[in-house]
Amino acid sequence: MKKNLLFVGTMILLIFVTLLTACPPPPEETYLPGTVTITPAGPVSIGQELTANYDGGVNVSYQWRLNGSPINSATETTYTPDSAGTYTVIISATGYISKISNAVNVTESKTLVSIEVTTPPSKLRYELGEDFNPAGMIVKSVFNDGSKEPITGYNISGFSSDEAGVVVITVTYDGKETTLDVTILEAAEDIYTLEALTTYLNSFGSNTADDPIRVKVIMDDIILSNLVNVINNANRFVDLNLSESTSSRNGVLDNVFNNNFLVSINLPSDITSIANHAFLEHSSLTSVIIPDSVTTIGHQAFGHCSSLTSVTIGNGVTTIADYAFQSCSSLTSITIPDSVTTIGQSAFSGCSSLASVIIGNSVTSIGSGAFYNCSSLISVIIGNSVSSIGDSAFSGTSLTSVIIPDSVTSIGSGAFYNCSSLISVIIGNNVTSIGGSAFRDCSSLANVTIGNSVTTIGVRAFENCISLTSVTIPDSVTNIGSQAFSLCSSLTSVIIPDSVTSIGISAFSPCSSLASVTIGNSVTTIERNAFFACYNLTSVRFDRAGINIEYSAIQPVFFGDLHSKYIFGGIGTYTRDIGGEVWTKVD
């Protein structure tokens, strides 16, 4: 019986061995090298061609997908969407595991449905005979998907200042139109003595800031304190024109206007300096005209003038001091003339309605926090003499695009921090340093061009820029700071140029979409956690052996065993499967 059982067992074993020999296991598959991406990455409309780009050097086939399902006959490297949805492409090759691309959202083609004036011009009140001034006006196109975009090249018609009253201006663009109301003022009463001013003001009943009494005082060496007393005693709101008067203040306008009855003022033509706090907290002041004779606007000169909507800065002003227009919450636009060289710290901070800024071509420095928390600011033109942009200068604004001219050499810490609407940035070719947190939390930032003189990308410079899909680091950069690109969850590939010597702590951790990295031949140190938690990172190229990769069991530089594989393998490309911990040197 035992012999029979032994015989049967032997036969079963022979049959099993025979089957194994006849049916060998399938060849082991490896993950496709390289990456596959779709361009453009977005935004894309129906009818706009998409292109699949594969850089792995393997002959692959393509299958386009819409919302996860294969598209019939869509097997070329290009595809033109004919419906809205999420598009991807899968590449495959014999003996390899397939790889999927980034997702691209395709929307309905945008159609212009209307236009609107989103920010009125700075000047809405005109004297008889004046020409229309559109400075500060922002017109936007409105599309069928609800999006809006600033436009230029629109036409303006209907303005006339021949008669006093409300004039309706028509703005037209591409067959669409909108309207804007402006006011032509009655001629101001000419006043030659303070006695005459007293009589004239008292001839009116009580009024409001919406209906001020317009007067033009024409006097030489006027004692401004006496003028202010007349206005205060009359208890009337006044639109005051002193452009043809001279003062007795030796060119300095201090805080003599200690009242809230001024609605508008055109300053005397011999004033050279507006002193600190001159109009601080004048809550009724809506309009100021600063003559060309003025060279300096002092500290908090117009701070917290909550009703100020219009400021004309004369062409002689050279300095706008710290906090000069801080928290002027009704100011919608400002044009800084070419005469100005310095914009002080927090000069316009907290101007929550400020939507448009033009910075003249003589400004050399934009102070720290100059436009901080100007939450409505969507447009800024930076003059071509600016050399430094201060810390937090534009932090918390609604800018959508920024061009930093070649004159700029440094961008301060937090300069554009938390600009959540910022989509595009061009950094000029003379910028040498990008400060810490300079573009941190710019959640819409998708396109960045870094100039070819930048040597340092500061700590957290682009942290949490979740829409950034690619970045070209120029070969001038030597240091990438800690957390410089941390939490850039859409970043798919990075090439560290040969100029870089060090990559800081958590520089790219965690970039959840990062698939490939090339590390240049000058890198000597990669600090801990630099690429940790980049779970989709499947290809790393080292162009130098002996890099000091800081070891940490808790916060390793790379996921898996790449650290140890590189120590023994040196220069080359290393790959792994997604989710795998084992890296393989492939060249």
| CA radius of gyration | 33 Å
Mind telling me the CATH class of the domain at 30-107?
Mainly Beta
Q: Quick one: biggest sheet?
A: 14 strands, parallel
* Number of E strands: 49
Number of helical segments with 4 or more residues = 4
Main structural class:
mainly beta
Q: What proportion strand?
A: 25-35%
Helicity range: under 10%
Please state how the strands of the largest beta sheet are arranged side by side. 22-24-26-28-30-32-34-36-38-40-41-43-45-47
Average pLDDT figure: 90
CATH homologous superfamily assignment of the domain at 30-107: Immunoglobulins
The shape is: elongated
CATH topology tier name of the domain at 30-107: Immunoglobulin-like
* Spatial separation of the terminal alpha carbons: 60 Å
Oligomeric state of the chains present here = single chain
Unreliable sequence segments:
16-27
Proper CATH architecture of the domain at 30-107: Sandwich
Descriptive report:
- The protein is mainly beta and 587 residues long.
- Among the domains are: 30-107, Immunoglobulin-like (Sandwich); 112-184, Immunoglobulin-like, CATH 2.60.40.3630.
- It is 8% helix and 29% strand.
- The strands form ten sheets. Strands 22-24-26-28-30-32-34-36-38-40-41-43-45-47 form a 14-stranded parallel sheet, with no helix packed on it. Strands 3, 5, 6, 8, 10 and 11 form a six-stranded mixed sheet that branches.
- A hairpin with a 4-residue loop joins strand 14 and strand 15 (148-151).
Quick recap of the structure?
With 587 residues, the chain is mostly beta strands. The chain contains four helices and 49 strands.
